[in-house]
Amino acid sequence: MKTHVTCLLASTFLFACSCTRTPLQIELDRLGEVIASCPIYEDRFSLEADRLRTSLHRAQGDSARWVVLDSLYRYYYHNSLDSAKLYSGKMMQEASTPGQRFVSRLGQAIILSQFGAVEQAAAIFREIDTLGVRDSALLREYYHSGIIVYTNLSRGSDSPTEISQLRQEYARYRLELLTLDTLSAYARRLKGQVQRNSGKMEEALCTFSSLMDDPDVGFNDKASTAYNIATAHEMMGDREQQKLWLARSAQYDFLAQDREYLSLYSLAMLLYEDGDLDRAARYIQTNMMDVLDGHFNTRMSNSGKAQLMIAAASLRAEHRRRMLWLGLSSVITALLLVSVAFFLRYRSLSKRLDHLNADLTDA
Predict the structure, then answer these.
(1) For residue 258, which of 62, 13, 38, 23 has the smallest C-alpha distance?
(2) pLDDT in tens, 102-118
(3) What's this model's pTM, rounded to 2 decimal places?
(4) Which contiguous run of DSSP H or E holds residue 235?
(5) Are 199 and 233 a contacting pair, CB within 8 Å?
(6) Which residues contact 248 (CB under 8 A, 6 or more apart)?
């Protein structure tokens, strides 16, 4: 009886262990479900875009049309760079007030920097005069644009000295924005970045967590915040948490239909390094398709190289698996042949012994 109980308990324990999933495995499964549901999110995105375009057709006057064009530009900014560029250009045409022209020029600089024309973008941005601008909303827009333009400039530079100078400019614009805005999701995320980069990890994670828990924060902001949390865990050397938060960031990217993301790309590269090649290949393929669909040129090179690298590794792994199975098959076949040979030899010896016993009995 005791033996049966012991076996039952051991079986239950083993079954429970096999069914237990780590938090990372749970997030990866959720990410798979979100990716599979992408057509639903795409339809939802298209419906909202159609609603905005209907509002554009109904808008009366240049100023009213500009407001809707600005909404369309911002709506497409992370989804389709070509569409964002189209509406940015129309904003320039429809702008009828100094404030609208100011914001339109900023949008033009950002779009150019996103297409890789960073020098042209920087020239336009530096020509924009903030002297006499008193509207805090316009100044926030200006500093936000400066952060984006100078970040893209630093990514396109090969000079360590120039990169350092550009990052200083980026940091200056970030601090200027934080003097004007402390309440928006973007400003709170910048505050968390400053804390993280200063080594105040606990404070940074607390700031980021408050954003993730805020029901009023949208999918785009939560995706960026989760990515920043992943970066914090990377800096702390916690690879498991880094992957977990990248998976969460990717989920929000898909919910928001953000095609400019780095989360899935970064996660694919980590999984590739861990040897999870099948999942890494699926993720980088999805990433590459989104980058191409959104025409995010500055992302295409890295995504393309990663796809080739992971595909090559997957082929090598598949080749090794085939060779292993071939070797195992050969061993199994050899064992079967040996077994058959022993069996036939046994039958032959048995028959000879039977004949011998029969002869001895007759004698």
Answers:
(1) 38
(2) 999 999 999 998 888 88
(3) 0.78
(4) helix 219-235
(5) no
(6) 27, 226
